[in-house]
Design a protein that fits this description.
The chain is of the alpha+beta class. Helix content is 56%, strand content 20%. The longest helix is centred in the N-terminal third of the chain and has 61 residues.
Length: 574
């Protein structure tokens, strides 16, 4: 089976393997849950860090407060304020853990009376915090903990007002320094989580791929069926006994049933109807006007064949149609209907090239239909000869062999017709309706009169001549007559499409002689026309079309056309 692509589109929808979706969901859930858990843990840990830092800073501030009191006493004794501040700075500096840590004393006006190295400012910068401490002092609270906004960032610290020095003593730590350990823990934990998730996903991917491998087999098979517009059986060899395999087995049973029904449907409907039903899942009672070429073929002397063969006529018809329909389909024709011994096909349904070449395809089909019948006659002849080598045929066998020697006529016309589905919601049929359909049938009837295998209309002839390909070198068109069939008010030219791949030089020469006689016939010079036709028929008795005009002209018994002659022969029968 063709390897399944990870991404593929059906219509406008992108199809993603279920295993990929499961892995994506599991990955998101795992990462989200672990990162959220880790974040919550770090948040709780951060609160504990702040709490412990508060206790530590409070202890250190207490020592700084006591030392400040001692230095104040020394200051009172020595009178040297600068030495007292220097000693206080040195004593406060010794317990600093980080470069940005600091301790200081600030008055209510923001004047710094002492500071450690971490405080790189001369005036206390956080006016809002200073105002809050002053307000708390006015309310009777002269110590506490709070956050400070400093140039280096946000600090957390504790403070206490010192009456002797008239200043707030503050011990603070930069929040980023306090949380650096938390960040390292979070980063390390995240890396461990990612590593574990990757390992888990590898294990999960292998397990899911093994467990769900037949989901991919089933989905790829369904995709291939949709692309080919045909049902087939999913290969479930070595499938495990689970609900996925049961789904595949159930589908195979349904596919087999639908495939059989579709096969039957194809035999009773044209291919375009089958394709439309498969793709759209319904068929409407609808149609449209289209420019098509219509081919009509009929078996000659069919009534006599039926009388001779009885029920066996069905076997002969099936043998004939089996080959004829295949020939039509090979030339992109669509069989519109089968009515007893008659078959109707249309050309021009398909892509632009099929529309352009529809008449050419129809004429090629017509000649191949005659080839098919000739092969069938040859087969019957060989069977007869095989029997005659052993014994003489009985009278009944003689009648049967004459009856099964099939001969057909083919008429082709084209133009605007109605093509679509007619009937009711309970019973409908695909059909083609129009004057050109009737005309193709009439032309098939004319093949019996003019004794030619194929007759086409001027429309078909001109469309083939307009092609710039093999048609010009393969076919040569000889005008047969201008006829006004029963039920019509205008004459129509009819032509014989000679296949130059099959015709001999003598046949071409005979038809060229016929063309000259036809020109004399059209011009009213019936004497010269009759003379030429008689000479042709004497030399070539198989040129039966000449005999038709000989009989017609002899029936009038004149060398010139009657008054009012327009070159149109009016048919009295269909």
């Amino acid at each position: 089976m063709k390897k399944k692509r990870f991404w593929q589109k059906v219509g406008g929808t992108t199809i993603v393997p279920i295993s990929a979706k499961i892995l994506a969901i599991v990955t998101i859930l795992l990462l989200t849950s672990n990162f959220v858990t880790n974040y919550l843990t770090i948040s709780l840990y951060s609160k504990e860090v702040v709490k412990l830092t508060n206790q530590l800073l409070t202890k250190e501030l207490k020592e700084i407060y006591i030392n400040a009191g001692n230095q104040y006493q020394i200051f009172l004794f020595s009178g040297n304020r600068q030495d007292a501040m220097s000693a206080l700075e040195q004593a406060s500096e010794k317990d600093m853990l980080f470069k940005a840590s600091w301790a200081l004393g600030t008055t209510a006006s923001g004047e710094i009376i002492f500071k450690t190295h971490g405080a790189n400012f001369n005036v206390f910068p956080d006016e809002e915090a200073l105002a809050a401490m002053i307000a708390a002092q006015d309310a009777g609270v002269d110590e506490g903990a709070r956050f400070f906004s400093m140039p280096a960032g946000e600090y957390f610290g504790v403070y206490k007002y010192h009456e002797d020095w008239g200043a707030f003593l503050i011990r603070a730590e930069l929040m980023s320094d306090m949380m650096s350990a938390s960040r390292r823990v979070f980063l390390n934990a995240s890396l461990i989580i990612i590593l574990l998730v990757v390992v888990f996903l590898v294990v999960a991917f292998v397990s899911l791929r093994r467990l769900l491998r037949f989901v991919g087999v089933i989905s790829q098979s369904l995709y291939d069926m949709q692309q080919k517009t045909e049902m087939s059986i999913i290969d479930l060899k070595d499938a495990p006994p689970d609900d996925i395999s049961y789904m595949g087995i159930s589908f195979n049973a349904l596919s087999s049933l639908i495939g059989n029904l579709l096969g039957i449907f194809r035999k009773f409907a044209s291919q375009d109807v089958v394709d439309k039903a498969y793709q759209n899942r319904y068929i409407n009672l609808e149609g449209e006007q289209r420019e098509l070429t219509v081919l009509f073929t009929d078996i000659r002397s069919f009534t006599k064949m039926t009388e001779t063969l009885g029920n066996d006529i069905i076997d002969v018809l099936n043998l004939h149609y089996n080959s004829a329909i295949r020939k039509i389909h090979e030339q992109s024709g669509i069989v519109g209907s089968i009515i007893g011994d008659a078959l109707l096909a249309v050309y021009g349904i398909g892509d632009e090239d099929m529309v352009r070449r529809k008449s050419l395809l129809a004429v090629v089909s017509a000649w191949e239909l005659h080839d098919s019948v000739a092969e069938l006659r040859q087969s019957m002849l060989e069977s007869r000869q095989a029997i005659e080598r052993e014994r003489n045929l009985t009278e009944r066998e003689e009648e049967v062999f004459k009856a099964v020697f099939l001969d057909i006529g083919v008429g082709i016309d084209g133009g605007i017709v109605f093509y679509g589905t007619v009937g009711s919601v309970e019973r409908m049929a695909n059909t083609v309706i129009g004057d050109n359909v009737n005309s193709a049938s009439r032309m098939e009837g004319l093949t019996r009169i003019y004794q030619t295998p194929i007759i086409i209309s001027e429309y078909v002839m001109q469309e083939i001549v307009s092609l710039q390909d093999l048609a010009k070198s393969r076919f040569r068109f000889f005008e047969i007559d201008t006829v006004q069939v029963k039920g019509k008010t205008k004459g129509q030219k009819i032509f014989f499409p000679m296949d130059l791949f099959r015709a001999s030089d003598k046949e071409i020469e005979n038809w060229e002689r016929f063309e000259k006689a036809l020109d004399a016939y059209y011009s009213g010079d019936w004497g010269n026309a009759l003379s030429e036709l008689r000479a042709m028929f004497r030399e070539h008795p198989d040129m039966l079309v000449a005999k038709v005009f000989i009989d017609r002209l002899e029936a009038f018994g004149g060398d010139t056309a009657p008054d009012g002659w327009r070159g149109v022969w009016t048919m009295k029968t269909k």
